[in-house]
Amino acid sequence: MGRSAAFFDLDKTVIAKSSALAFGRPFYRDGLISRRDVVKAAYAQLMFRLGGADDQTLARLRDYLAELCKGWQVDQVSQIVTETLHELINPYVYAEAAGLIAEHQAAGRDVVLVSASGEEIVRPIGEELGITEVIATRMRIENGRYTGEVEFYAAGPSKVQAVRKLAAERGYDLADSYAYSDSISDVPLLESVGHPTAVNPDRGLRKVAAERGWPTLEFRHPIPLGRRLRDRPAVPVAAAAIGVGVGVAIGIAWYGKHRRARPAPA
Predict the structure, then answer these.
(1) Which residues are catalytic?
(2) CB neighbours (10 Å) of residue 176?
(3) Could you count the other beta carbons within 10 Å of the beta carbon of residue 204?
(4) Consecutive sets of 10 residues in the chain, 266 residues long: mean pLDDT of each?
(5) Does residue 265 lie in a domain region?
(6) pTM of the prediction?
(7) Measured by CB atoms within 10 angstroms of the end CB, which terminus of the chain is less buried, N or C?
């Protein structure tokens, strides 16, 4: 048998806030997104928490993410990140998640963060937890601008493909490995390992976990990371574009879906 690993989703599984929406306000302030985008994102955050995201929604998120970031100047994004870094790097890590990660590491397992947020956001958070391996969304940059192309979108089935590729490279035995997530969209990820666990599950995942007899955990005690992260260098600029892109894309996708579902006025 090969080595085993533990794969953790990030938002609402390891941290108690959305890593993707952190830049919404400063990006609006500096004109990269509109008031309409902000309203959609705020509405979507509530709906996303209530219902998760299906495959169709994930596809819309990817497409909107690419279109939203297209043409943004890296220098402008860099300035925004510098001015608002203290607002961005202030997630809260669940004490329960930190303890569980430490238990897996003590047992000799590699721990991997798997998130739809940008790699530049996910990696420094992981490093604070002693995690060096991440699977996350990557954007393309050419000539100092974002091209509007997503090199890799770490969501849904794409997460599983990346996990299996990493497992083949590192010799992980997925049947003896663990996975943790809060979202119905991560059922493929949870199915890919021998020890799946739902953490703070949304409505859809809670139902699936009950049907399949998967363990369910409730994490309720976040620890602020700001003090541990404040002396770290600034997050690379791509993190900001990816973060706000995913957040606003969630807003657009959910807003459009639920507006279409409303009955027409008489």
Answers:
(1) 9, 11
(2) 15
(3) 16
(4) 89 80 73 75 55 61 72 75 54 86 96 86 79 90 87 88 97 97 92 98 94 97 61 41 44 44 46
(5) no
(6) 0.76
(7) C
Domain CATH number, residue 24 = 3.40.50.1000
Across the chain, which distance is largest between two alpha carbons, in Å?
65
- pLDDT tens per residue, range 76-130: 766 765 565 455 545 578 989 999 999 999 999 999 999 988 776 777 778 778 8
User: Does residue 266 lie within any of the structural domains?
Assistant: no
Considering the domain boundaries, does residue 30 fall inside one? yes
- As to burial, measured by CB atoms within 10 angstroms (0-12 exposed, 13-18 middle, 19+ buried), residue 34 is exposed
Residue whose C-alpha is closest to residue 61's, from 16, 142, 14, 116: 116
DSSP 8-state class, residue 213? T
How many domains, in total, are found in the chain?
1
Tell me the residue ranges of DSSP E strands in the chain: 5-8, 92-94, 110-118, 133-142, 145-152, 178-181, 195-199, 216-217, 222-224
Amino acid identity of residue 34, one-letter, is: S
Q: Assess if residue 139 is contained within a domain.
A: yes
